[in-house]
Amino acid sequence: MPVPVPDRRTVVLPHQAGPVDDDGCVAAAGPPAGPAQASARPAGAPAAAPAAGSERADAADGAAAGHPAAGDAIPGERTGHGAFPQDLTLLLIGADPNSPVPELWDGADHKVRLRTARNLTEAERLLTDDVHCILLDLAPPERDTRDIRDTRDTREARAERDERGPGDGCDPGDVRGRGGARGPGEACDPGEACGPGDELDALREVLRMAPAHAVLVLTSQTDAERAAAAVRVGAQDYLFRDELDGAVLSRAVRYAVERKRADRAQHQLTESRMLAQENARLERGLLPTPLLEGSGLRFAARYRPGRSRALLGGDFYDTVRTPDGTVHAMIGDVCGHGPDEAALGVELRIAWRALTFAGLCGDELLATLQKVLEHERADDEIFATLCTVDISPDGRHAGLCLAGHPAPLLARAGRPPRLLPYESGGPALGLLPHARWPRRRIELGGAWSLMMYTDGLIEGRTGEGNQRLGQEGMTDLVSRQMASGLRGEELLDAAVTEVRALNGEELTDDVAVLLLDRREKGRPE
Q: What is the pLDDT of residues 137-181, one digit of tens each?
């Protein structure tokens, strides 16, 4: 048998109103009336109540009225008059299926669909991704605030309450959900909220159930305090039943949807900022603190990760002084630029410091570090280059080990900087299982500067072509700056700045530079 379709309660928004006819009636703007409109209900006739849990605006009903069907809309397309997406869907949650919510048309003459649910169980079933806004009808103060979850008849509940004696239900001194004090022997309704905060439990449940949806609450004009509390709990806005019409609801829904979208965007931005701050603190904590007390050496370092907005890259360095007075310095580079490479670089640095304090040096230390690398790397093709220097307690000579890493730059007093020998170095860590890394003795002299660096400093371009700076270009660059009197941190700052300027843009590779200076006693700086 045919299913009767309820009459439609249509509210024409102000911008859609047509001219006033001779009888004082406003003609609705839009397409000409179809056959279904000729049988519209008489003025003043009560609106047909929608069935609970059903949509009151189906495609056939909209087409019969001369309005486009829901399927004709382009998903995600925005309409005129500001904000409604086409096929806007509202979900009304309330114990009263005859809640005074007018039907709406959006600015592009598309009907707004309204789904109704008597309780949260039905609402959870009807809450789909195409719902844009939830209208929660809060129970009036004289009615049990949990009727939205429990639809038992109020009078029956009150009768059951009257049959109970003292001690059943809430304690005599409890406060009603409506705010009144309870006298001795008076218990609360079976489902009644027993504290003032429980009146909004239904709203809290809706917010928990639909964290991504805009929520409006409906309440009576005499219950403004609870309406304001609902906004504090998390609703986007509230509406009074007594003043509800199409224009008010249309504006409120637009505002709620846009405010929820803005709130979510702000929340995501705040989370991103907090995560970035936490990562920055973590990365700063992973950078080394040199342990050179009592060595008489001056230390300076500069570090620039190649990753955008990162503080830590695959390059790593460290400097420590062991109890026998020897100063150990190290700089390395894990292939790659991601967070995994940065984490592996930190592991190698910490392992190097621990092994150094344990007394390992030279080939034995590098062989152990290679085992650490082999166990910790995510891929067998990942390798790391390394340069280690151990400076004698008197500071006049040192031992050098190279594992596929560029040789350091040494500047002695009264002599131009020069690169230390590279020929005796071994392969990078992680390439050959049984590799060896011979230690070469280097004479330093009384006063010297030793600069250790990663390949990011020498692989920048020197112009518009593909020519790289290289080790020779870097040596000439540092020589000019030292001749102008730059030392320590000023020298490193100037060197990195000039390399970036020659490259014409930010360097894409990680850059780490470490500088150790020794001055003879009595000699001016």
A: 886 544 444 444 444 444 444 445 445 444 444 443 333 333 343
Q: What's the predicted TM-score (pTM) here?
A: 0.55
**CA of 64: how far to CAs of 36, 58, 173, in Å?**
6, 10, 59
Residue 24: how many CA atoms within 13 Å on its side-chain side?
A: 1
pLDDT tens for 31-46 read 333 333 333 333 333 3
Q: What is the rounded distance in angstroms from the CA atom of residue 322 to the CA atom of residue 292?
A: 9
How many residues can be counted in the chain? 525
| Tokens standing for residue 404 | 């596929």
Determine the Cα–Cα distance for residues 271 and 20; give it in Å rounded to an integer.
53
How many whole angstroms from its chain centre is CA 480? 46
Q: Please state, in angstroms and as integers, the Cα–Cα distance from residue 510 to each residue in 90, 139, 332, following that order.
A: 53, 62, 11
Burial label for 51, CB within 10 Å (0-12, 13-18, 19+), is exposed
Which residue matches tokens 């609870």? Answer: 226
Q: What is the Cα–Cα distance from 99 to 134, expressed in whole angstroms?
A: 14
CA-to-CA distance for 382 and 265, rounded, in angstroms? Answer: 38
Q: Residue 38's closest CA among 61, 77, 65?
A: 65
* Residue owning tokens 């150990």: 328
Q: Residues 6 or more apart from 129 whose CB is under 8 A from it?
A: none
Q: Which residue has the tokens 């894409």?
A: 508
Only one residue has tokens 């304690």, namely 171
